[in-house]
Amino acid sequence: MKEPQLDAGFANIYQADAKMLSVSATLTTGFRLSNGHTVYGPLLIVNNEPFSLNIPPPKRDKDGKASNPLLLLDSDALALLEIVDPKPELLIVGGGASISPLSPSARSYLTSIGLNVELASTKHATSTFGTLCEEGRNVALLAIPAGVDL
Predict the structure, then answer these.
(1) Residue 126, domain extent
(2) Whole-angstrom Cα distance, residue 125 to residue 86?
(3) pLDDT digits over 13-42, tens only?
(4) 149 within some domain
(5) Which residues form a coiled coil (predicted)?
C-alpha cells in the first residue's frame, strides 16, 4: 500500500481555497475578502495572496488636514512586488475616500521594476481590481481603507 505524501509547502492562512481572491466589501477601517476573512488597515493583494501592510495611519495637522499615508511608502515597503513571480502587469492603488498620490520615490521605484500604476479611490480601485482579475489579467491591489479621507 502506498504511503500518503504530505505537502511540505507553505499554506496561505487567509485563503480557504484556490478561487480568485477579491475584495467583497470595503469597510471604513479595512476590507472583507471573498474568502470570508477581514483585513483591517492597508491591504496588498498580489498573485491571489493578501498581505496586511504596516503603513502608519494618517495624522492631522493643526488645520485638521490629514497626511497621506501613501506618501510614506518607499522601495522597501514595495519590494515584494519585485520578487513575486509572475510579476503583475499593473498595480492599482486605492487612496481611501479619494485619489491620493504615491511618494515620488515609490512611483519611481515601481516604474523601475516595470510596473504600471493606476491611482483611484479605494472603492473604485477594488472594483477595477476585481473586474481585471475576472478577465484573467495579472494585477495587484494596494489600498488603504475607504474611511481614510485626506
Answers:
(1) 23-55+66-144
(2) 21
(3) 444 345 789 999 999 889 999 999 999 989
(4) no
(5) none
